[in-house]
């Protein structure tokens, strides 16, 4: 069994190593052992490995990246009645999916609907569930209005999900990307939505013209950094800045006085809080994710797949500008088979 791990935070290429061992973990009561076949590289996985500036490392000891993946149930612990060995499942939150095997509570292993590919199943939970959380935050901030909402990194995997949801719900969305070529790609996919490239000197003027008299009601931002102050400046009085990612480097300054004088709201959204929803609410979100995987798999786009052992090349690809979709790490069935003694 192969496991990617790190013992201290730092540049991913330097701190991550591949460990091989003969024994695999065993599921306890209420748990299942999953032979992970495909797992994504999410930007958040890399933040976990590299840390954030000014934020001291909070954990010690060996850790394995990854919170999501898909695979096959290898064995079930006592009291597990809902899953059986051989069943295809997607798992989240499942810390340590960058390994050939992971143990998860049985209620966090979601059956993969028939007809959904392994690649789509590996992307079925984190981004669609994040979309659910973001959409709820947008609706709350809009208080019954239909926009305008301005989103950054519109060409990202999440950005494309937001665009598709906006079309479906008749939400007035303005898309921001950082390059002209990126703008062209988003425009081709969502021709009804304005797309503006922040490399244009006049990008803020263009946003104002598209937003019209009411002004931007909500900004959905996953870039952060120095642009955040400009984004807040585009909000109408009483508007809301929803921050959910930090793709840029550096700190995110926000001037207090304009926030106060214009009664702006700043809020964060994190998938890490999804588990605090009730079991019924989570089941509704998971049903949405399963439906999306079955009926709109093109929204869960794959950039490329690499063997788990090639994680360094895969990470370099995941960070490449102008990439479309998510980079996956795979385990061939034969590799996961080797080292088959339970610990
Ligand atoms: N809060 C949560 O719970 C949660 C959950 C999931 C994801 N996220 C966040 O959502 C964001 C998108 O994730 P994803 O998986 O959809 O990403 P992704 O598919 O890897 O796409 C990344 C996108 O970001 C753009 N980008 C990268 N650096 C940028 C910068 N400095 N300025 C402007 N644009 C930049 C890229 O544009 P180019 O095409 O121009 O290269 C690309 O379109 C990330 O910040 C991630 O951490 C948050």
How would you characterize the overall build of this protein?
32% of the residues lie in helices and 24% in strands. It is an alpha/beta fold and 343 residues long. The protein has two domains: 2-124 and 300-342, Quinone Oxidoreductase, Chain A, domain 1, CATH 3.90.180; 128-272, 3-Layer(aba) Sandwich (Rossmann fold), CATH 3.40.50.720. Strands 4, 5, 6, 7, 8, 15 and 16 form a seven-stranded mixed sheet that branches. A six-stranded parallel sheet has the order 11-10-9-12-13-14, sandwiched between helices. α8 (227-234) links the parallel β12 and β13. The longest helix is centred in the middle third of the chain and has 17 residues, at 126-142. It binds NADP nicotinamide-adenine-dinucleotide phosphate (NAP). The site of NADP nicotinamide-adenine-dinucleotide phosphate has 27 residues, from α2, α4 and α5. InterPro entries: ADH-like_C, ADH-like_N, ER, GroES-like_sf, NAD(P)-bd_dom_sf. It holds the Pfam family ADH_zinc_N. Residues 11-329 form the Enoyl reductase (ER) domain.
